[in-house]
Design a protein that fits this description.
596 residues; alpha/beta; Rossmann fold; Arc Repressor Mutant, subunit A; 4 domains; 7-stranded parallel β-sheet; 6-stranded parallel β-sheet; 17 strands
Length: 596
């Protein structure tokens, strides 16, 4: 382990491993297989990068995204590591140059897309280099892509079991930031890693504050939220391509720098927008879930959802793109019952098997339970991954506990009204019946004579809509899409009608602004001015080197420099995140800047 610590300090600039990192490095460096579940920002990459530098031969890293490969290779090269990638963004000459260096055994790590890896020519090259120079290890990043139940399924990942068959003596490590118990088993089975040692870190991301609001003018709600993060980078997720473009345009009109990203845009537009997001400060990316997997930008300060995600797994993966540097970040979501209805409709109309739909609905139910929660959000989120914690104190429910009221009787009245009117009408008509409104439709249908007519006159229209919204969200009512959104009773409704289940809902209130929590070393006053000067130096340096700013140094490293103000190269070398190569390359310029 002394060799691993030496690499950690002198190459990557850190003095100690975190959590399970040391055990994982030891397992793989000694030739063992590993299945690693570690949250985004937890340091997964070091778990294979350090063994790669300890073992003879080239480490092969399977990665699904060009952007992720490019950024990780740039960061490794900045640290003095011989790393390259092979993907479709390279010219023929560039790819040939990388292959020649690989064949000569000059590379420590080679990042490669699964499609290219499985090409017969590449497999033959692997066998040749293994005979000549050895393969240090195979790292399969974003391993959840192998799961057909997962949210980022990639069919080509299913064929990666060939690695264990053709290279049985080479250690393999599969890594992902999120996978429930079922997905973990599927990863192990499909990658032939059932005998691999498993490392499951805590899924908690304590630096992320979770906040969820009911939709009430969502575009303005989003703007108000983003204004709490002036000049900071963030991601806004929307369900549809049209909504992505409309939201990006609205944010630009409001004076923000916002870019759209979805699969329907031309490839060159997507690439340009992604590159700007990675390399410029303060850009808001508005995107579908086509954007984000493997984005290695550490200083994303917020992730917002304007639509309900498909599952807790998806939500966790998407919000995990905030605060990868460990500094405070925020996950915000605006949601409504219509989101749940829309998701269920998409599932009903999908071509998936009955089993797929059942599991997908179950996962959606779990997500609805999270957004409906009146207690700690983090408890519900981590319980899904089999982890128990105490109340976090860093979510909206902990900081500003919601008021609730016992809505069991109104809920029973609502369900009775659905039944008495034949389960053929939407919420608007049902509310008219409950409130005793003799509209033309109510009278025409004879619903002014049913026993539920007028029994809910004590509640206003807004409150009744909240009751129906919660009944649908918690699956006491179903929506019949073939009959224009008519509400129908589910089996669960019997429990409420018999009084065998409780039904508390939130009292709608205007949420207070929650100031983001602070963590780590935070510069203030004159230190903050030094920090801004350091950021400007970093931006200029990154532009000259044509790499993202965070590849030079993370914000956390610059903050520590601003607070400690080292006056010599020796002192600067003790700052977290500064290895030998970076100290040599940037140390003199930083000391000069600090002394000036």
């Amino acid at each position: 382990m002394s060799r691993a610590l030496e690499i950690l300090e002198h190459v990557f600039g850190y003095t100690a491993f975190r959590g399970e990192q040391a055990a994982i490095v030891d397992q793989v460096a000694n030739g063992g297989d590993a299945l690693v579940l570690m949250p985004t920002g937890g340091g997964k990459s070091l778990c294979f990068q350090i063994p790669a530098l300890m073992r003879p031969g080239t480490a092969i890293v399977v990665s699904p995204l060009i952007a992720l490969m490019r950024d990780q290779v740039a960061a490794l090269q900045e640290a003095g590591v011989a790393a390259e990638c092979l993907n479709s963004s390279l010219t023929q000459d560039e790819a040939a140059s990388v292959e020649q260096r690989w064949m000569r055994g000059e590379l420590d790590l080679l990042y490669i897309a699964p499609e290219r890896l499985l090409n017969p020519r590449t497999l033959a090259q692997l066998e040749h280099t293994h005979e000549q120079h050895g393969i240090a290890l195979f790292a399969i990043d974003e391993a959840h892509c192998v799961s057909q139940w997962g949210h980022d399924f990639r069919p080509e990942y299913l064929q990666l079991s060939v690695l264990s068959e053709r290279f049985p003596g080479v250690p393999r490590i599969a890594l992902t930031a999120t996978a429930d118990a079922q997905t973990r088993e599927e990863i192990a089975q499909r990658l032939n890693l059932t005998e691999a040692r498993r490392f499951i870190s805590s899924f908690d991301r304590p630096n992320i504050r979770y906040r969820m609001v009911e939709k009430n003018g969502p575009r303005q709600q989003l703007l108000d939220f983003i204004h709490e993060h002036p000049g900071e980078a963030g991601i806004v997720y929307c369900l549809s391509r049209r909504k992505v473009e409309e939201t990006a345009a609205a944010l630009c009109e409001a004076g923000l720098t916002a870019l759209p990203y979805h699969a329907g845009l031309p490839q060159e537009v997507r690439s340009e927008n992604q590159l700007r997001f990675l390399r410029e400060d303060g850009i808001v990316m508005v995107a579908t879930i086509a954007f984000g997997m493997g984005i290695d930008k550490p200083d994303v300060r917020f992730v917002a959802h304007l639509d309900l995600p498909r599952s807790i797994e998806g939500y966790y993966q998407e919000t995990g793109r905030a605060g990868r540097d460990g500094l405070p970040a925020e996950a915000w979501m605006a949601w409504g019952a219509q989101d749940v209805v829309q998701q269920r409709r998409m599932l009903d109309e999908s071509e998936g098997s009955a089993e797929f739909k059942r599991l997908a609905n179950s996962r959606l139910d779990a997500l609805v339970g999270l957004v409906e929660a009146t207690d700690c959000r983090r408890i519900h989120l981590l319980r899904y991954f089999g982890e128990a914690i105490e109340a976090c104190g860093n979510c909206d429910n902990c900081i500003d506990p919601p008021q609730t009221w016992d809505a069991l009787e109104p809920a029973r009245k609502a369900l009775s009204c659905v039944y008495r009117t034949g389960q053929r009408y939407g919420a608007g008509h049902l509310i008219d019946v409950l409130r005793g409104e003799r509209t033309e439709k109510v009278v025409e249908r004879g619903h002014d004579t049913v026993t539920t007519f007028g029994i809910g006159a004590d509640l206003d229209d807004k409150t009744w809509r909240s009751v129906f919204r919660q009944l649908a969200a918690r699956s006491f009512l179903a929506v019949d899409h073939d009959r224009f959104g008519a509400l129908t009773l589910t089996e669960s409704a019997r429990l409420l009608l018999r009084g065998e289940a409780g039904f508390e809902i939130r009292v709608p209130t205007k949420k207070k602004r929650l100031k983001a929590g602070r963590g780590g070393i935070v510069p203030t006053g004159a230190e903050a001015e030094v920090f801004e000067r350091l950021r400007q130096w970093r931006a200029d340096t990154a532009r000259e080197r044509n790499v993202p700013a965070y590849v030079i140094f993370h914000d956390a490293t610059l903050q520590e420099i601003a607070v400690r103000k080292p006056s010599s190269l020796e002192e600067l070398g003790t700052v977290s995140g500064i290895g030998d190569r970076k100290l040599e390359a940037y140390g003199p310029a930083l000391i000069e800047l600090l002394n000036s």
